[in-house]
Each structure stands twice: as structure tokens, then as C-alpha cells.
Amino acid sequence: EYDKALEVLREALEKTGNDQSIADKLAEMEAGTYRDSAQNIRRSNTYDLDGTLVSYTEYEYDELGRRCGWSNYYLGSTETGEQGPIELINTCVVTFDDKNRPERYQFYDPEGELTEWDTFVYNEDGLKSEQYRYEADGSLNCYFYFYYNDAGLETRYEGYWSDGTMYSYWLSEYDENGELIRETEHDPETGEVIRYSTFD
Q1: Which run of H or E residues covers position 6?
Q2: Distance between CA atoms of residues 120 and 132, nearest Å
Q3: SS3 15
Q4: Residues 6+ apart with CB under 8 A from 173
Q5: Using CB atoms within 10 A of its CB, is residue 117 exposed (0-12), middle (13-18) or buried (19+)?
Q6: Model confidence at 7, in pLDDT bands (50, 70, 90)?
Q7: pLDDT value, residue 2
Q8: Whole-number pLDDT of residue 119
Q9: With b meaning 16 or more CB within 10 Å and e meaning fewer, what string describes 7-18?
Q10: pLDDT of the residue at 31
Q11: By three-state DSSP, how is residue 77 classified?
């Protein structure tokens, strides 16, 4: 409940006479930072090029600290350009293999109907190298290839339609601690940024 959390932090800041740690946390959340005490990403925001929030994702973790699911929301807009109602687009449930790696993503619409599912291929280092997305009927929708730096951090991934046409690629940025802070989606023909997401 992010709005409630912001309200509590603002009250705490006032009552503590501007405690610096509370002020820092409030500033982080107001800027779009939503990590929990274990530094798990709880929410990511996606913006268009003028900085307008267009969608966000809320993440869930299981008792082992694994990201076990998430929900995607879209912020509609009115004809005047003002923010419209928030709409739940889909939810995802993750199952894991015997090595604690994601084995399958299952996506459900707001009514709970299965719409898509993903499977994965891992390289010799145990890193995700390929991901395949299928429609509920089993037909291939699209697939992704993943690339990493020497530290094992994902730096780029590419999305392709089932006919092999690339439709986007994404570049990831990290802070000095190796925490993901930003992801930009690019047009494969021009290289221009289409939209971006923040994670801190």
C-alpha cells in the first residue's frame, strides 16, 4: 500500500523533526523506489519519454526470497491527457525447477483465465539465456535472448516475434552495488529509446 506508506513516512518525518533516515526513505519512495528491507524490488515504474508514468508492476516473493509472481497495471489517460483509471492488465505466477530457477511463468487476465505462459533455457553458468512465450493454446507468440557482462549481470535482452523479427531490445543499468536501477527499451531499427523503467 504505497500511498499509505508515503503518508506514514511523512507523519514520521514531522514527528521526528526531520530525521535524516526517514527523509532519505521518503525521497526514495517519492522518486519511485520501492524495495523492501531485504532489498527485494517490490515495484517498478515505466515511463514514456516525457517522464509520464504509464504503467507499473508490483512483485511478490515467497518464503525463500524468490520472486514468485507479480501484477502489471496500466495507467489510462483521458482525452485531455490527464491520468485515467488504473487498470490491472495481468498477473503472473512463477514455478521453479529443482535448482530454484524459474521454470515457467503463467500469465492470467483480470478474470483469472490463463492467457500466456513462458519457458526458459539456461546456459552453462546457470543464467537465463533464452525465454519462449506461448499463447494459452500452445502456439509460440515471441521469444527473447539474454546477454550478460563478466560479473554475470544481465546487460541486454532482445525480443523477437515468432517469425524471427526483432521488435525491441532492452538495456539494463546498475548501481555501484550491482543493483538494477534502470532499464531502457529501444527501437531495433533506430536504436532510439521507446520507454524506460526505474527500479530504485
Answers
A1: helix 2-15
A2: 6
A3: helix
A4: 180, 181, 182, 183, 184
A5: buried
A6: confident
A7: 64
A8: 98
A9: eebeeebeeeee
A10: 61
A11: strand
Instruction: For helices 20-30 and 2-15, give the axis angle rounded to 10 degrees.
Output: 150
**Who's near 68: CB < 8 A, 6+ residues apart?**
60, 61, 62, 93, 94
Residue 152 CA to residue 145 CA, distance in Å, equals 15
For 57-101, how does the pLDDT look when each residue is reduced to its tens digit (9 = 90+)? 999 999 999 999 999 999 876 566 666 788 999 999 999 999 999
| H or E stretch at 67 | strand 67-77
Cell 553458468, located at residue:
125
Range from 28-37, 46-55, 90-99, 174-183 that averages highest in pLDDT: 90-99
For residue 4, the one-letter residue type is K
- DSSP-derived secondary structure for 113-128: -EEEEEEEEE-TTS-E
